[in-house]
Records
---
Amino acid sequence: MEFQGWSDGLALRPRDYLGKGHTLAAAVGTAGPLRDETLYLFALGSATTMARLHLGGIAGLRLTPGNVVVGPRGQVSFAAGPRDSVFPAHDVRDWAGVVVFAATGREPDQGADLDKLLPALRAVIDECRRADAASRPSAVDLVRILLGHSGAAQGATVHELLLEAERRTRPEEPAPYEEHVVPTPFWRRPAYLTGVAIGIALVAAAAGAVILISGQGSAPEASDVVTAVGRRTATFSQVSDGVGTAGRVRSEGRLSFDPGAPATSYDMKLACGNDPQPVSVSLVGTRGTAAGAVFDTDRPPGESCVQSTAPTVRELSSPRTVQGLIDAAGTGVTSAPAAGNGRTLTGSVPAHRVRGEEGDATYAGLPAEGPVRFTLQVDGQGLPVRLRLRMESRGGAAQTVETVYRDWRAFEAIKGERTNG
């Protein structure tokens, strides 16, 4: 079927999302469950298409692995059939079941192992499967969460939000600025990956979720930072310029990395915005504490510069993010000798491909619209010494972030700052 796109951002005709091809059930049965970025793009793309349909007044889609259809070029559409409900909340619950099946090969009510999902995606699925239909997120809410937006604080309209999702999942087109980044190796290109995955190159286009499988290659000479760090603590300092309303951000303290934990823990002093006085901040998992006030690191309050900026400090310095940069750049990473038997690694990668700390922000990649150019210095043991990031935006402005790591030592538990009262 030939997809012609949406009219003014609305899905107006059922035929726009009905197609022919192999069902998701058959595709997963042949090639196995989806993983990593493939699963993320499937979730984002299908949620975006569902949101377009709901905005066009089309609901009651009866989504199941048996009627989500994968076309010959990776297009995802929905098989023709009667619509049983006008309630979009029913579709949201069904969407969660389809995503669980895509990730595990089983539906939630058929013994699916939900522990295979990343914690952030598991939380989204649980919200969609609430017994009270009124408390479930809308399809647009799902897109916002999967993009890592914190809601109204981002200031994006629904139309802009969906366009952003569609740009990320558009088939056979480079992500913004990708033409200026290192060429994609042939084994990561859509045509090759479609053959390997037997047609499951799932990318959501504006008229049907269409998802591009973007493999995670690793450069032959790139350091395995997570293995090198192991379970350790380091002293760090970070300076960030050009961070919008936050202005110049300065932080210093210690980070404790445990590869078995979902997130790196931080104990630091942070100053940003118009207040030059540093504030004591601790981050342990998704729990943050700033000057005695507790906040959720996945959804920090926008009115507090320190609380909204602290998770970004972690996101831009964690060993997982360092590894994510190297993995996403793949063979585009270059390596040169550095002092003390160390190495300097350089590369460039689209921000949305970088997977770092777990949490809602994991799905969005790094907070940049264009490419992220990085220079990483590691010592003779492969431990990070200095990380410099340059993150570009469509308007031409660039944010630079430099993190210095010192005194890698035995792991020190960070329990978090005590709360007031």
---
Amino acid sequence: MQVDLAPSPNFNDRKCPVDMLVLHYTGMETGKVALARMRDPASEVSAHYMVWEDGRITQLVGEDKRAWHAGVSSWQGDDDLNSRSIGIEIVNGGHDVPLPDGALPPYPDIQIDAVIALCHSILASHAIPASRVVAHSDIAPARKTDPGEHFPWARLADAGIGLWPSAGPEVPGAAKLAPGDAGEPVRDLQVCLRAIGYGIEPTGLYDDATRLTVQAFHRRWLPDALTGHCDARTLARLRDVYMAVTASSDPSSTSSSSSGSRAS
């Protein structure tokens, strides 16, 4: 795996060991523009790596340093995720620069192959549980949508990176929940989302924060359903993901060889 260097001044010292991997899309017109922004001191943003459409990999910040990619975010009760994560920016316009017909630009196969190779290298060097290989939208659901519902998470899981649990049966008798609802079913939903890792408080109110968190869950785990509402499919997928996250939290599953298997 060849990695080119394009150092960014936008980093500082870590406060924690690395135990997370965060995937982003650049959301800009070109990779060249994105790279220039991440190397501009005035932008105060960076990432450890950027993966181009043709599979080239550029390193901007050393893995031992704290790149500035996660922003205000949280996961599994942790904040300051820049201190504990490695960030990969993947060149893709995403929601910010869609195709002329409004569709999201696809990720080329050669680019995803490079992302997989890079992730394997990172996971071989750091103890990162599968449940802590995340999307930017997972850790900041009110602000971010990347790397988008078009990102092939299942393909990464098949290669041993992150989670993509098999789909189980729908939950019988599941109530549909939507913004404005309140009560114990809403609180149960919030508790489950929080147990997976999302930074949501169990208030029992289906408020805007809950809608955005459910939508982030959909974007990652049910990409054909971005309603922000909770139905039987959503509850079944929540169960599947919760079980996979629980299994991956076992210390014996923190190696790259086990972190991406499709949990059932």
